[in-house]
Amino acid sequence: MTRAPIPVVIVAGFLGSGKTTLLNHLLRTASGTRIGVLVNDFGAVNIDAMLIAGQADGTVSLSNGCICCSVDSDGVQAALGRLVRPAARIDAIVIEASGIAEPRALIRMVTGLTDPRIRYGGLVYVVDVGGIENLRVRHPEIDRHIEIADLIVLNKADLVDVDTLAGIRATIERLNGTAPSVVTCDAVVDPEMLFDASDRAVSTTPRSGQLTLDDLFAACAGRDDVDHHDHPHTHLHDDYESADFETDRPMNPRRLAAFLERPPAGCYRIKGVVAFDVPGHRQKHIVHSVGGFVRVQRRAWAGEPRTTSIVVIGAGLDRAEVTERLAAAVDDGTPDDHGILRITRYVTAP
Ligand SMILES: Nc1nc2c(ncn2[C@@H]2O[C@H](COP(=O)(O)OP(=O)(O)OP(=O)(O)O)[C@@H](O)[C@H]2O)c(=O)[nH]1
C-alpha cells in the first residue's frame, strides 16, 4: 500500500521564543503521532539537538549555519530522506529552524523538494509576547514572517499583562488575518493543531484574504533586497553571530550566573548544557538567557559525558570576550558554599 506523503511542519520564531520548548511539548504529548525532527542550530554546537535527543522517533541535526542559506537543499533532502525511510515509521516531521532563519526561504526549500514521500505541512510561528514589540522595531522583517504563518503561537503569556497581550494579539491579527493564533505558557499547544492542521490547506494554496506563498515570493522578488539566490538580503542572520564554548571541567556557578545576568555587549541569547561539581547539584543544568531573562532547568544526565557546552548568540559580539569570560567561569576549586544559589534561584520545572 502506498503511504500518504508525510507532512513536514516548519517551526520558526525569533531567538529564544520557545521553539524547542514547543518541540519538546509535542514529543511528550503527541502520543499517537510518531514525530521525526530536523533541528537546525546556528552555532557549531547544536544545543537544541542535545535538548531533544532521545525523545524524538528520529532526529537529524544540522548545525553550523542557518538552514535557510548555509545548508543547501540537497542537505535538507538527504536529512529528510533519512527520516522518511519506511523503517522509521514516522507520521510527521517537524523542522525546528534556527532563531534567525528566514522562514520564506525555508518554506521554499521544502516545497521545492521533489521527494514524493513528503509534503509541506505548514509554518508554525512562535512569538515571545514579552519581547515582540521591541523586536518588531529592531527587525521589521519579523512582520513578514508572521504574515506567512499558518499557526501563530503567542508564547510566554506569563510575561505580559492581559491588556498588553490583547494589544499584541490585535497587531498579529492585523498582520495575518487568517492564521489561527493560540496564547500559551511554555508553548503548551494541542498537537492536533499542528498535525491535523497539516491536513488542511496550508498557505501554498490560497485562503481567502491571504497572499499565497507564490504571491509573497513574487512580492519579495520585486524588491531590491533580493540577492542572486532570489531571497532577501535582510536575513536576520546577516547581523547575528555566535560563539561556542565547551569544557569537560565543571563550571563555577557564581561566575556563570554573573555571565548569564550580565552578558557581553551585543549578546541576545545564551543557551547551554552545564555541569557543576557541587554536592547535591551534579545534575545536568540547562541554562538559558533570552534578552536578559534567565531560566535554568535540571535533568538527570542520560549517560552522555558530563561536560559543558554553551552557545552565545548576538549582534556585534566580541567573541574573544565571550571565550575569556566563560573560561574564567570554569571551576578552579575555590571554595564557595553558597555560589550555587545564584543558579538555583532561576531553576524552573523541566
Ligand atoms: N517565562 C517563560 N519562559 C518560557 C516560556 N516558554 C519557553 N520559555 C523559556 O524561554 C527560553 C527559550 O526557550 P527555547 O524553547 O529554548 O527557545 P527557542 O526558540 O528554541 O530558542 P532558539 O533555538 O535559541 O531560537 C527557555 O528558558 C524556556 O524555558 C514561557 O511561556 N514563559
Automatic annotation (TrEMBL):
InterPro entries: CobW-likC_sf, CobW-like_C, CobW/HypB/UreG_nucleotide-bd, P-loop_NTPase, Zinc-reg_GTPase_activator. GO terms for molecular function: hydrolase activity; nucleotide binding. It catalyses: GTP + H2O = GDP + phosphate + H(+). GO terms for cellular component: cytoplasm. SUPFAM superfamilies: Hypothetical protein YjiA, C-terminal domain, P-loop containing nucleoside triphosphate hydrolases. The keyword Nucleotide-binding applies. CDD domains: CobW-like. It comes from the Bacteria. SMART domains: CobW_C. Pfam families: cobW (PF02492), CobW_C (PF07683). Keywords: Chaperone, Hydrolase, Nucleotide-binding. The keyword Hydrolase applies. Residues 240-330 form the CobW C-terminal domain. Belongs to the SIMIBI class G3E GTPase family. ZNG1 subfamily. This is CobW C-terminal domain-containing protein. It comes from Gordonia rhizosphera NBRC 16068.
